[in-house]
Write a structure and sequence with these properties.
alpha/beta; six-stranded mixed sheet; about 180 residues; Rossmann fold
Length: about 180
Amino acid sequence: MTAPSRILVVYYSRSGTTQRIAELLAAELGADLEPIREQGEHSARSGARGYVRSLLDALRHRDVRVMSPVHDLSAYDAIVVGTPVWASRASAPAVAWLKAQRERIRHLALFCTLGGRGSQPALDQLAKAAGKTPLAVCAITAHDLRRRIDGTKRQGFGQKLRHRLAKLQQTEWID
């Protein structure tokens, strides 16, 4: 019998929505949790100015500096990365984090939170930054939150991730 997979949920959140989804997901998966933290004097993204800066960073594909993870990524079977979506693009901090950590990620899963549309281009952008095909993806919209179906989406995402990790572990064990 194989040991349960170790999972780390990493997220960037400007307004708190992605953070809340990440916390719930980590609890449901029995995973560790870590925020993506920016470096530098211009890292504040709160308020109207922060929103505009965040949007421009995403639209212009600006590189931002992020801190190294606190957790040892090599200790995890899968890293789940979450981001808000702005104008069909992933947040600049999440993209920067994935680019910096891509070599240390064994298996990847992705989720995003958004107001309406644009999840697929943002998820594709994250996968490209990581240089990996995700085992599972999930997009949670504001409409999903209002209808209270985000839990169903998170559970489906978690089940898919666990199932794919179990299949990979079986294959690795046989080899």
